[in-house]
Amino acid sequence: MAKAYLKIDIETGKENDVKTALKKVTGVKSADFVTGLHDLVATVEAKSYEEITTKTLAEIRKIKGIKKTVTDFAFEWA
């Protein structure tokens, strides 16, 4: 299972629309507003990192109101 955290910057006034749209994207497990440099952090899971990159992120970046995304892939240490 591949996992990533997306830090998302949102246009002012579009916060709730973006969060609602994110929750409809396959693979998005959570979407939470946060304080700090970014507006929202989403947790994404898929079968592979390639699937996150080619399918899930492509779908997320089409959501109106998203200005920027920063993706941090999560890895397990054995």
Provide a short characterization of the protein structure.
27% of the residues lie in helices and 40% in strands. The protein is built from two helices and four strands.
Chain-wise SSE layout:
Layout: E1 2-10, H1 15-23, E2 28-33, E3 40-46, H2 49-60, E4 66-74
Antiparallel strand pairs: 1-3, 1-4, 2-3
Key words describing this protein structure:
4 strands; 78 residues; globular; Alpha-Beta Plaits
Describe this structure in words.
The chain contains 2 helices and 4 strands, in the order βαββαβ. The chain is of the alpha+beta class. The protein has a 4-stranded antiparallel sheet with strand order 2-3-1-4. It is globular, with a radius of gyration of 12 Å. It starts with a strand and ends with a strand. The model has no long low-confidence stretch (mean pLDDT 96).
What would you say the CATH architecture is? 2-Layer Sandwich
- Helical content, roughly? 25-40%
Query: CATH class, anyone?
Result: Alpha Beta
Element-by-element helix/strand order: EHEEHE
User: Would you tell me the overall average pLDDT?
Assistant: 96
In the CATH hierarchy, the third-tier topology is known as Alpha-Beta Plaits
Number of strands: 4
| Number of separate domains | 1
Taken as a percent bin, the fraction of beta residues is 35-45%
Question: Could you give the order of strands across the largest sheet?
Answer: 2-3-1-4
**Spans of at least 5 consecutive residues with low confidence:** none
